[in-house]
Amino acid sequence: MCGITTGMGNLYEFRMSKWLEKLAVFSIFVGLLALASCSSPSDSYRTDRAGARSDYGATASSGGEVVPAVPSKSPSALYGEANVKKSYIPNGRHARKYKRYLDPKYITIHSTQNFASGADAWRHAQALNNGKLRAYKSRGGNRIGYLTWHFTVDQSVVVQHLPTNEQGEHADFDGPGNNTSLALEMCEHRGNSRSATIERTAKLTAWLMYKHDIPLRNVVPHYHWRREGLSNPHKNCPHYLLDNGRPGAKWQWFLSRVNKHYKSITNGSSTLVSAGGMPDSRMFC
Ligand SMILES: [Zn+2]
Fold first, then answer.
1. pTM of the predicted model, to two decimals?
2. For the segment 74-86, what is each residue's pLDDT rounded down to a tens digit?
3. What are the CA-CA distances from residue 205 to residues 151, 259, 270 (Å)?
4. How far is the CA of 61 from the centre of ligand 1 (A)?
5. Which residue in 45, 131, 195, 245 has the fewest CB atoms around it within 10 Å?
6. Distance (Å, whole) CA 164 – CA 167
C-alpha cells in the first residue's frame, strides 16, 4: 500500500514538476516582456517632465499658463550661476563611515531653522566635516548617529557635502525620502537674503532635475515624507515655503521658479512645443 501510494505519488509529482516547469518558462517570458516595456521610457515621458502635474497641484506650465521666456542657456551655465563648491565630508569618517548607495529619484527641499548668527552654508559644511551634527541612533529612527544631506544653500553659494550617489540622513529615517532623494537645505541665519537663497535653490534644483532625469513632480518639500513613529509625521519644512504647514500657493510659486530655470536649459518643454508647434524662444521673442 505504501509502495503503490509512493508510486502514484511519484507520478503525480512528475506531472506536477512538468507543469511547474512550463509555468516557470511562461513566467520568465512574461517577465521579460514587462522588463522590456519598463526599461525604455517613452519619449513623451522624457520630454514632458517639466509639465507633469505635481502632487500638490498644477505646475507653472499647466492650466494654460505660460512661463515667461528666458534666454536659453547651457546646463553648465546654470550650474555656474548656482555657484556650487564641493566640500565633502571626509571619506570614511563621521557620517560617511556608513555608506548607502543612492540612485536619486526625488529632490527634497528643507530649510535649516538654524537662526544662529553666521550659520551660513560654509558654517554648516564645517560642522558636517567635523562630525558635529550628531543624532540619536535608534532602530526605526536615525540610522547612523549623524545628520547629513547633500547641499546647503545661502544667498551667495551652494556647498556640497555628499556625492549625489550616497544617501543622506535628513528626511524620514529608513523611509523613501532618505533612500531615494537628494537633499537641499536653505540657510536662515540673520542677514541672509531669503529671496536670493530661494532663487539659488531653484537654479540648483533645475540643474539636478536635468542631470538626474528627475521630473518636477518629484521635487518635494520635506513635508512630503512621512516620519513613521512620530506624533507629527509630516514636518513643517521648509516652513516659509508652506502655507499653514502644508504645501499650497507658496510651494507652487517655488515650483514655478524651478520650472522656469529648468526650461531655460532645456529650451522649453514639449508642453509648449506641442501646443504652439514652435519652440519657446520663438514664441516669446
Ligand atoms: Zn527638513
1. 0.73
2. 999 999 999 999 9
3. 10, 9, 20
4. 27
5. 195
6. 8
Ligand 1 centre to CA of 23 (Å) is 48
Would you call 19 exposed, middle or buried from its count of C-beta atoms within 10 A (0-12, 13-18, 19+)? exposed
Q: For the chain, which residues make up each domain, given as ranges?
A: 1-40, 50-284
- Exposure pattern of 100-121 as b/e (b: 16+ CB <10 Å)? eebebebbbbbbbeeeeeebbb
Question: How many Å lie between the centroid of ligand 1 and the Cα of residue 47?
Answer: 30
Are the beta carbons of 172 and 159 closer than 8 angstroms? no
Would you tell me which CATH number, out of the four given (3.40.50.300, 3.40.50.11220, 3.40.80.10, 3.40.1190.20), belongs to the domain 50-284?
A: 3.40.80.10
Dig out the grid coordinates for 263 from the structure: 526650461
Q: How far is the CA of 110 from the centre of ligand 1 (A)?
A: 4
CA triple 84-249-72, angle to 5 deg: 45
The closest alpha carbon to 209, from 46, 53, 42, 43, belongs to: 46
User: How much distance in Å is there from the Cα of 159 to the middle of ligand 1?
Assistant: 17
The x, y and z cell numbers of residue 251, run together, are 510651494
Q: What is the pLDDT of residues 21-80, one digit of tens each?
A: 554 444 444 443 333 333 333 333 333 445 555 666 545 444 334 454 545 899 999 999
The answer to whether 210 touches 258, Cβ cutoff 8 Å, is: no
Cell numbers for 159? 556647498
